Amino acid sequence: EMAAARLSGTENRLVSLPLSRIRVIMKSSPEVSSINQDALFLTAKATELFVQYLATYSYKHGRGKEKNALTYTDLSHTAEECETFQFLADILPKKILASKYLKMLEKEKRDGEVREDNDEGEEEEDEDK
Asked: Known PANTHER family for this protein (predicted)?
């Protein structure tokens, strides 16, 4: 209890992320009924350190160094290439032009139709046997 009381007075200086928002995110999980103040603080601090690590790693290994800036491309490249961060690949996808994306969707649709036709053909052959 003393740790929680001590943290509540200084938590704003120790963590730059808003604890109220983190509490809301944590409570959105159906398994979570109550959140201990220490757990909330530690989750916030761990998240902050993780974001710093991701940003620093992406900056050092990306093209941003040349421009003295961290770019979205640096972050998405890190998510794609670095095993540690691959779980973020869906959250940080590579940016592509909308026209390119529409062509990809169209191709997937065509390929899907071709596959479905082949599957049906195989099933018919099985019935004949």
From this structure: CHROMATIN ACCESSIBILITY COMPLEX PROTEIN 1, HISTONE-LIKE TRANSCRIPTION FACTOR CCAAT-RELATED
